[in-house]
Amino acid sequence: MINWPLTACDERVGLLFTPYMVTSWQEAFEAYKPGGWVKEILTDVRADLGVKFFGPSPFRPAWSMAMARTSSIGDYEYFRDVLDYHNQIKMQFITGAMAMNQGSWEGFTEDQQRAVADAATTVMNEAFEQAQERDQYYIAKAQEAGVTYIEPSEEDLKMRKSRPIESDTNSNNSGLSLAVAHRQSCQRHLSGNACLTKLHFALERFENEGYSMIHPILLCGGSGTRLWPLSRKSYPKQFARLMGDESLFQASARRLSGDGFAAPLIVTGDPFRFIVTEQLAQTEQAPQGILIEPEGRNTAPAVLAAALWLAERDAEALMLVAPSDHVIPDVDAFRSAVAAATPRAQAGDLVTFGITPDRPETGYGYLELAEDGEPEADTPQSLARFVEKPDEVRAQQMLAAGNFLWNAGIFLFTAGAVIDAYRKHAPDMLDAVAPALKDADCDLGFTRLSPEPWARADDISIDYAIMEKADNLAVMPYAGGWSDLGGWDAVWLESGPDDQGNVCSDHATAISCEDTLLRSETPGLELVGIGLTDIIAIAMNDAVLVAHKSQAQRVKEAVAALKARGASQAVQLPRDYRPWGWYESLVIGGRFQVKRIVVNPGAALSLQSHHHRSEHWIVVEGTARVTVGEDVRLLTENQSVYIPLGATHRMENPGKLPMVLIEVQTGSYLGEDDIIRYEDVYARG
């Protein structure tokens, strides 16, 4: 029996044992091709492990690495080269195997048998040595493409030994067998390590036409108070659909994906972790990691945590740090700017992106170019200094000077370069963030930074902590459209006003209005403006904002005033998003509450009970699997169930469409903290 290497997977490529026998390399090639049977039959495994590609176990290390490269950049000529080589080696092995294991010994003397065995052994040894030499060649070639070979761990070796390859005498397989193991065994092996760190073959980086893979770092913190009431602390603006059918976060993830980009690394807070995974899944992307901040500490600690996380895998990894709530309409132009900035970042510079200004904006910080800087250049330029948000007069002066750019808050550098900058300019922060990452907990695929050391990190932006102090800076000018949507006036501008300067949502009407933004965010709520000029009106079912456009930056004052009054509308949307879906309160009385609850397909609420309330559930769309005590039943549309006070209960959606039900709560106390969880697939307390 022979034990071939067990392969593994990362966030983009999976190469695993499968329970399906492949009887020829040609069949393996057909299986690996786009649309091949591998992709079809292993959809469930791919979903479980969050990778994009799976295939049968490869024959040797070079084969694994060829497949990793092939599935990443579609280099099928390289694949065929390795395929031809392995066909040659296979035939030599077959010669020896046939002589030793399948040849007939009748009529052979003992000496003759020994001679045949020795000859077969010689053939096999020569083939093995040749294979080793050729493997080194292909491994080197694959490593040039960014495919890295990682020696198996002791745990992996134990796994391999538990699944030996048995000899196969099937003539179609010519005495050889590909590795076979149960898919479920592989699933258990990897699902126990949610972060998927124990890999044999990991595709960390690749080069395609000189373009190095870039790791997007999407920052998803912040409360977005300047776009209240649509954006609130419970659901900030990056997750809202402000500019089309996708959220700003989804648009950012899609913008920084595709050729040349690795899967995104997300830095966010605990309340948003499931929103991030759900919205990414809707764009058909899987993150390479999600770092959970114990508390928001501004951008400097967040960027450092991401850099340290990447440096553990590749210190030269290129990081493109970007807020997740920006609007950049021309995706191709922005990617071209990133490509142009890459050489400077690879050389060790810290590159920031500057936007060519088209107006005297007081809501942005500025970047002053050095004397020899060209604001319209298509390559990175020398940077003189960062400039704080100016007043109107100073903004006019900087626009006229022509050597100032808006500070976009987007950065490109290698993980090693920015860590060195922290070591030089912010060593105390490194002392706090490094142990926060080292002592992090991994659960459900999230990396939870350790709270105690994280709390020691200064609450400061990367501009203040690093960029204003570093001497290896460069700025990449960008003349395309860009906005950070820092207020409703920016939303009005980016939404494309009509001939009268008005922007209206589907449920809003402007009559004799000019330069006005009217948005109704609630279906069935019609908003009408008459004779308005330079007005912003945003209507939701629990809050309405009306302001002069020139006062858009004062919206956060309104949020502060509502907080001071204890109004829940200051921070909480009427729709509360949860890992399993969402709910909203329809009616609230003294001793009752009516909710609409939407449960995503395949999702389940925790097994729970309440001390102070009973509940009635009425299914209005889909099918619910309901547990009440020991009773488990299915409810379809127009069916209902009563949950007595104190009874353990759970609802699940076993279907493929969202399930909607109406919940009527009655009792002396209806707060969300009246809940005891016994089981929860989302590991909530």
Determine the number of helices (DSSP H or I, runs of at least 4 residues).
19
The oligomeric state of the chains shown is: single chain
Give the strand content.
15-25%
The overall pLDDT, averaged over residues, is: 77
Apparent shape:
globular
What is the share of helical residues?
25-40%
Distance, first to last CA: 48 Å
Number of strands: 32
User: What low-confidence regions span 5 or more consecutive residues with pLDDT below 50?
Assistant: 1-29, 37-76, 93-105, 156-211
Structural class: alpha/beta
**Radius of gyration over all CA atoms, rounded:** 30 Å
Q: What composes the largest sheet?
A: 11 strands, mixed
Question: Can you give a write-up of this model?
Answer:
- This protein is of the alpha/beta class.
- The strands form 8 sheets. Strands 5, 6, 7, 8, 9, 10, 11, 12, 13, 14 and 15 form an 11-stranded mixed β-sheet that branches.
- Residues 1-29, 37-76, 93-105 and 156-211 have low confidence and may be disordered.
Notable features of this structure?
alpha/beta; eleven-stranded mixed β-sheet; six-stranded antiparallel β-sheet; globular
Question: What's the structural blueprint in terms of helices and strands?
Answer:
Elements: H1 25-32, H2 37-41, H3 43-49, H4 61-73, H5 76-102, H6 110-144, E1 147-149, H7 154-161, H8 183-191, E2 201-203, E3 207-208, E4 211-212, E5 214-220, H9 248-255, E6 265-269, H10 273-282, E7 289-293, H11 299-311, E8 318-323, H12 331-346, E9 350-355, E10 366-369, E11 383-387, H13 392-401, E12 404-414, H14 415-425, H15 427-438, E13 441-443, E14 446-448, H16 451-454, H17 462-467, E15 473-478, H18 488-494, E16 503-504, E17 508-511, E18 517-520, E19 527-530, E20 535-539, E21 544-548, H19 555-565, E22 575-578, E23 581-588, E24 592-599, E25 607-609, E26 613-621, E27 624-628, E28 631-635, E29 640-643, E30 649-652, E31 659-667, E32 676-679
Parallel strand pairs: 5-6, 5-8, 6-7, 7-14, 9-15, 16-18, 17-19, 18-20
Antiparallel strand pairs: 1-2, 3-4, 8-12, 9-12, 10-11, 10-12, 13-14, 20-21, 22-23, 23-24, 24-31, 25-32, 26-29, 26-31, 27-28, 27-30
